[in-house]
Amino acid sequence: MMNELGARIRSFREQAGLSKAALARRVGVSDVTISYWENGIIRRIGHSRLQPLARALGCNITQLLGQQEYRVEDTRMGTDYQSLPMFVFDHSPDSLRADKPPISQLARSFLPEALRKLGDHLLIPDPDSHFPFCGPGNFMLAESCTGFQDEGLYLLEQRRLLTIRHVESPDPHEMILQDEQRQKLTQSAAEIRFYARLRAIWHFESLPA
């Protein structure tokens, strides 16, 4: 019996007017793999394939996985985000411009339960960019910020480049930045631009169908 993900892949493919062979070429897999996905023989698709598959089908990952669209409910003053917008970035601060749209959204139900109420977006490093504390294919659960909040990992701009550092602040006017090798550098707070507090970093080997 065809699983739900397979049925959605077939539906989106037919809506896009694509043959299995044409979709396979766009995603970079064989047409046999497309058949296996649609028929449910392969029930789990790695994230490295999920992104180009959604792009080729003209939908986003949330739609492909059958989750709710990104929706914000303002109840009280508290905001309930049903899904998290996903952004790809590199070392250039321009890659995280405020007007840059997300590549997709991911339902919070895919996060470990302990993390579902944390962060307001997901960050994915560009495959050609290396960042400390974050390996290839990692996701980062991020919380937007404009300054130091508490000791931990931050995405920040240093010498006009984005990087990740462990930050502590014994003094409001100076920051202690630490890299993966635990080398510490004391720097004036005025010389650092904070982008996000990183609440969690993990790797999706695959997403459930």
Provide a descriptive summary of the structure in words.
It is built from five helices and eleven strands. With 209 residues, the chain is α+β, with helices and mostly antiparallel strands. The strands form two sheets. It has a nine-stranded mixed sheet, with no helix packed on it. Strands 1-2 form a two-stranded antiparallel ribbon. Strand 8 and strand 9 form a beta hairpin. Helix 1 crosses helix 3 (31-39) and helix 2 (20-27) crosses helix 3 (31-39). The longest helix is centred in the N-terminal third of the chain and has 12 residues, at 4-15. The chain is elongated and about 60 Å long. The two termini are 14 Å apart.
Tell me the strand percentage band.
25-35%
- Helix tally equals 5
Gross morphology is: elongated
Structural class: alpha+beta
Secondary-structure map:
Layout: H1 4-15, H2 20-27, H3 31-39, H4 47-57, H5 61-64, E1 72-75, E2 78-81, E3 83-89, E4 104-107, E5 121-125, E6 138-144, E7 152-158, E8 161-171, E9 174-178, E10 184-188, E11 193-203
Parallel strand pairs: 3-5
Antiparallel strand pairs: 1-2, 3-4, 5-6, 6-11, 7-8, 7-11, 8-9, 9-10
Question: What is shown here, in short?
Answer:
With 209 residues, the protein is α+β, with helices and mostly antiparallel strands. The chain has helices spanning 4-15, 20-27, 31-39, 47-57, 61-64; strands at residues 72-75, 78-81, 83-89, 104-107, 121-125, 138-144, 152-158, 161-171, 174-178, 184-188, 193-203. The strands form two sheets. A nine-stranded mixed beta sheet has the order 4-3-5-6-11-7-8-9-10, with no helix packed on it.
